[in-house]
């Protein structure tokens, strides 16, 4: 039977309408002026609280660089946490920005850790760097290069891994300072493997859950009965997954549970949430129409919770990308030696936490709209699959010891949802039968070309797909080359 769906024509045309105030704040001179004021404040904080007698100007400049990196992390990386929820209309952009900013800051300040690794991912051996001044120059070059690359990616609308940018920056600065023997190439190989592992695993898990939702909820005759049966289970799965996710990733700097403890936490959370949510969904669904719109309503609250939890975990982990090199520079300037780990003073953590939140407000909406709406059309069920995939993929990767990127997972999940929709639209027998029944009931005439139009319709924008993949592939080498050039420029200025 011919297959067409007129609403698909609008899938990639609807753009999220945001408040005029937010739009004006995200562009123009106002955002740049606020960002400059923040960088100035970061320098003042360093001058007051750093407590170094020598190299004071150097530490102040490094603090401003750390603030600049934090701004770029907020502008680019945080979109992965809230973009799908915004694109699905589960919450407005302004609400998402507030929730993300609060939980990013909370994650950074509460669970960011008192001690961080100064060398991201252990990719270089600081013991091979004899001169602390050379090490400081390498770390400054890494910060500048990573921040500039993430800034460029934000401008072109490509969500990239800020961790990979810092890795590339540290690698390039280290090679320029000492040579290729400084780099741990097995670690670099594992990071390169994450370029492939992260998006494929994230996309596959998101597509699997979307298939389950379509088969058991969307294309069922009695959607409300199906919702009462399956939505409490899906919400409980999400809660259990996020409990494990926070245990494995979000709190790892302050608490390191073993695998059994993580499993017990996840199971206990799953059972508790299912017992609470099951009667709530039954009560909430009473009187609802037998339509997909009703299903979308039931997924909204879990999506808001997922955005908050993802932001908390992100703040706890990725604040180190901004403050790690800064902590290394401060330690070397204060003690004259080089440390693989360094204690983070509160003022540095404040710069990282506040900078990420401010960067999200000032420059984040562009990437939020890209992830949430411009790659493929989102609704609450699809956004749920993306959020759940992010948590489950990190848990699986941690158990298997695989290196993964949270950015690549989230965006890969968005791609997975979009490409699965393309496949399901043309291949699903269940969908075909459901639409056929509706047409017979409505006695609608079907144009003969409908099947061909549906078969050729693309639900993922290929231009964005290619741009993002290209940005992922060149992030580490581009940041490394840029960092090496900046390192040599800094040596000339000494």
Describe the protein's architecture and organization.
- The protein has one domain.
- Helix content is 75%, strand content 1%.
- It contains 19 helices and two strands.
- The protein has a two-stranded antiparallel ribbon with strand order 1-2.
- Helix 2 runs antiparallel to helix 13, helix 8 (185-218) packs parallel to helix 16 (406-427) and helix 15 crosses helix 16 (406-427).
- The longest helix has 36 residues, at 300-335.
Order of secondary-structure elements: HHHHHEHHHHHHHEHHHHHHH
Helix content: over 70%
> How would you characterize the largest beta sheet?
2 strands, antiparallel
| Separation, N- and C-terminal Cα atoms | 74 Å
Helix/strand/pairing class, anyone?
mainly alpha
* Broad shape: elongated
Question: Keyphrases for this structure?
Answer:
mainly alpha; 75% helix; elongated
Helix-strand layout with pairing:
Blueprint: H1 20-25, H2 29-49, H3 56-76, H4 79-87, H5 93-111, E1 115-117, H6 132-156, H7 162-177, H8 185-218, H9 223-250, H10 259-284, H11 292-298, H12 300-335, E2 341-343, H13 346-363, H14 365-374, H15 380-400, H16 406-427, H17 429-442, H18 450-456, H19 462-493
Antiparallel strand pairs: 1-2
Helix pairs in contact: 2-3, 2-13, 3-6, 3-12, 3-13, 4-5, 4-14, 4-15, 5-12, 5-13, 6-7, 6-12, 6-19, 7-19, 8-15, 8-16, 9-10, 9-11, 9-12, 9-15, 12-13, 12-15, 15-16
Summarize the structure.
The protein is mainly α and about 500 residues long. The chain has helices at about 20-25, 30-50, 55-75, 80-85, 95-110, 130-155, 160-175, 185-220, 225-250, 260-285, 290-300, 300-335, 345-365, 365-375, 380-400, 405-425, 430-440, 450-455, 460-494; strands at about 115, 340-345.
């Amino acid at each position: 039977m011919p297959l067409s769906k007129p609403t698909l024509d609008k899938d990639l045309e609807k753009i999220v309408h945001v408040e005029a105030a937010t739009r004006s704040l995200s562009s123009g001179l106002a955002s740049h002026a606020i960002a400059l004021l923040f960088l100035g404040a970061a320098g003042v904080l360093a001058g007051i609280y750093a407590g170094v007698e020598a190299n004071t100007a150097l530490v102040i400049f490094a603090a401003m660089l750390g603030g600049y990196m934090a701004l770029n992390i907020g502008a680019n990386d945080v979109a992965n946490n809230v973009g799908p929820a915004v694109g699905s209309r589960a919450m407005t952009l302004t609400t998402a920005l507030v929730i993300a900013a609060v939980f990013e800051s909370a994650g950074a300040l509460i669970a960011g850790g008192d001690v961080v690794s100064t060398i991201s991912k252990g990719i270089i051996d600081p013991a091979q760097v004899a001169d602390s001044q050379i090490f400081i120059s390498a770390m400054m070059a890494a910060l500048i290069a990573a921040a500039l690359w993430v800034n460029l990616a934000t401008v072109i609308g490509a969500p990239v891994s800020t961790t990979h940018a810092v890795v590339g920056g540290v690698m390039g600065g280290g090679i320029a300072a000492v040579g290729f023997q400084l780099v741990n190439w097995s670690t670099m190989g594992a990071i390169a493997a994450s370029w492939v592992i992260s998006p494929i695993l994230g996309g596959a898990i998101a597509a699997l859950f979307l298939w389950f939702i379509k088969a058991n909820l969307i294309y069922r005759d009695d959607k409300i009965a199906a919702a009462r049966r399956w939505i409490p289970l899906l919400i409980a799965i999400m809660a259990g997954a996020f409990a494990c996710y926070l245990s494995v990733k979000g709190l790892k700097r302050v608490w390191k549970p073993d695998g059994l403890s993580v499993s017990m936490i996840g199971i206990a959370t799953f059972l508790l949430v299912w017992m609470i949510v099951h009667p709530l969904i039954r009560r909430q669904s009473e009187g609802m129409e037998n339509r997909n719109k009703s299903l979308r309503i039931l997924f909204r609250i879990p999506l808001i919770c997922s955005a908050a939890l993802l932001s908390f975990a992100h703040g706890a982990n990725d604040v180190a990308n901004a403050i790690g090199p800064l902590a290394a520079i401060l330690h070397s300037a204060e003690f004259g030696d080089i440390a693989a780990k360094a204690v983070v003073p509160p003022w540095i953590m404040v710069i990282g936490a506040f900078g990420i939140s401010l960067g999200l407000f000032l420059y984040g909406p562009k990437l939020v709209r890209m992830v949430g709406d411009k790659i493929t059309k989102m609704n609450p069920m699809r956004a749920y699959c993306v959020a759940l995939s992010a948590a489950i993929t990190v848990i699986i990767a941690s158990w298997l010891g695989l290196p993964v990127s949270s950015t690549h997972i989230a965006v890969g999940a968005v791609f997975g949802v979009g490409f699965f929709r393309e496949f399901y639209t043309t291949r699903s027998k269940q969908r075909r039968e459901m639409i056929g029944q509706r047409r017979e009931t409505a006695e609608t005439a079907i144009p003969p070309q409908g099947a061909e139009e549906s078969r050729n319709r693309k639900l993922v924008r290929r231009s964005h797909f290619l741009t993002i993949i290209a940005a992922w592939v060149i992030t580490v080498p581009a940041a490394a080359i840029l960092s090496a050039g900046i390192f040599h420029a800094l040596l000339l200025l000494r």
